[in-house]
Amino acid sequence: MREHTDQVWHCYLPGAWPGFLYGYRVHGPYQPELGHRFNPNKIVLDPYARAIGRRLEWQDELFAYRIGDPRGDLSYDERDNAAYVPLAAVVDPHFDWGNDRPPRVAWHRTLIYELHVKGFTKLHPRVPPNLRGTYEGLSSDAVIHYLKDLGVTTLELMPVHHFVDDRHLLAKGLSNYWGYNTLSFFAPDLRYAASRTEQGAIDEFKRMVRSFHLVGIEVILDVVYNHTAEGNHFGPTLSFRGVDNAAYYRLVRNNRRYYEDFTGCGNTLNLQHPRVLQLIMDSLRYWVLEMHVDGFRFDLASALARELYEVNKLSAFFDVICQDPVLSQVKLIAEPWDLGHGGYQVGNFPVGWTEWNGLYRDAVRRFWKNDGGTLGEFATRLSGSSDLYESSGRRPSASINFVTCHDGFTLNDQVSYNHKHNEANGDNNIDGTNDNLSWNCGVEGPTADPAIKALREKQKRNLLATLILSQGVPMLLAGDETGRTQLGNNNAYCHACNRFNQSFRRQ
Q1: What is d(CA 79, CA 425) in angstroms, rounded to the nearest whole number?
Q2: Strand ranges inside 327-462, DSSP E
Q3: DSSP class of residue 333?
Q4: CB 217 within 8 A of CB 147
Q5: CA angle 271, 168, 202 (to 5 degrees)
Q6: What 3 state SS string does 438-487 have?
Q7: What is the DSSP string of 305-332?
Q8: 318: which residues sit within 8 A by CB, 6+ positions away?
Q9: Helices (H) then strands (E): counts for the chain
Q10: Is residue 412 helix, strand or coil?
Q11: What is the 3-state secondary structure (H, E, C) of 138-161?
């Protein structure tokens, strides 16, 4: 590429028709101590790739430095990674949307249902076997009828952006099942496509959205713009790091070899750079305008609001979204915390945003566990959390109420276990939070004791009734209504759905 405009290199490539696979080699200095990690021996993925035509195969050649070298990431690897790196695919954007219209369900009528595309459909007995685990399976007649009967207005899909299975998980026979390890912010993951093709993933996703819109159900995406799959300074060079490491990532100011990490995943995207902010905005608009989704839930949203170090309610990210004629009109949900200092920001997001209300979750759990001194806060949470939202003029609908979510115990396990049981994750049960102590279950896990079973069922009804009757927007975790269990694992991010998912075995 010989031309560049406004910090973007560009060219015209004749013959790059749909199906054409490509990657970039980016030349520049390899000076990690200054934040530069260019290595033209490594093909890197286009950050704007619309589809991934070849998945990553883990090999040492994917790293810009020489693994095993005593100099660590300061060393330089000259081997070519072309045989193993993910490649972008040119796609045909045409799709017949017909008369598709966004349902635009009002917040006060919204019931959110959080689900995993594969997990919800893989064991569903009424989904055609060849469509289970896919976008097509999720929009099958059986699923649509079930969701309508349940009263769901809005689906919140756990990440569908193309993501990477961590190398250390694969070595243990596990995978990044949840998908919070994004590599491409534009490409729907083809693992959820029945056709297993790059064009098929796009078309099938669009058909899924169109099918839900026909019956008045919205589709919102759980998106992970706070970090990428490239990890810390010892991570692979797959895309952003090799394109322009110093621009895309937040680096430690006095030692640019290292990354600021507000996410617990090794890196944090640098929204202070105008082209990185543009990338995220372009991605969001693409999913609304081209893929017709109805909104977003932002993972670790506090990390997006850190202008320098502190979380800033008036950050450029919020300002740009608020003024955007497209994005300001869709549903915007923040997970209002990250892992950095001062990152817990429930109640502090701007007008126009709703928030996962972690204080609601904690108060409702404490009340039904019969903890002392909880009635006052329980009443406040039940009636819309005015202490959090009224001063800014936001209504109770700014509170996304939940008692369980993907991250933690299922509802069944919440009342069935006193302790987490994450041994299968391979981390000696030190991962996950101790958020379920003192439910006084008597015995943990499945039991034949009718008295204990009856008590657990009553507690589940108590929690769900509170959720549905509270002021605010209820969010239900998929499978909680049917007793789904993860056998006490409250951090099942690395397990395939067939290990734990028992959502539909009763039906």
Answers
A1: 33
A2: 331-334, 354-356, 399-401
A3: E
A4: yes
A5: 55
A6: CCCCCCCCCCCCHHHHHHHHHHHHHHHHHHHHCCCEEEEECCHHHCCCCC
A7: GBSSSSB-TT-HHHHHHHH-TTGGGSEE
A8: 305, 349, 350, 353
A9: 14, 15
A10: helix
A11: HCCHHHHHHHHHHCCCEEEECCCE
- Burial of residue 314 (number of CB atoms within 10 Å: 0-12, 13-18, 19+): exposed
377 flagged as catalytic:
no
8 A C-beta contact, residue 403 and residue 466: yes
Q: Tokens at residue 336, please?
A: 């209002």
Express each pLDDT in 432-482 by its tens digit: 988 877 777 778 899 999 999 999 999 999 999 999 999 999 999 999 999
On whether the CB atoms of residues 372 and 305 are closer than 8 A, the answer is no
Structure tokens at 9: 């290199």
- Is residue 96 part of the annotated active site? The answer reads no
Give backbone dihedrals phi and psi of 223, rounded to 5 degrees, phi first: -115, 145
Amino acid at 249: Y
Q: What is the per-residue burial (b if ≥16 Cβ within 10 Å, else e) of 449-476?
A: eeeeeebbeebbeebbebbeebbbbbbb
> Pick the catalytic residue: 335, 377, 407, 413?
335
**DSSP state at residue 287:** H
Distance in angstroms (rounded) separating the CA atoms of residues 110 and 297: 14
Q: What is the pLDDT of residues 325-347, one digit of tens each?
A: 999 999 999 999 998 888 899 99
pTM: 0.95
Which one of the listed residues 46, 73, 114, 299 is annotated catalytic? Answer: 299
Give 259's strand partners. 251
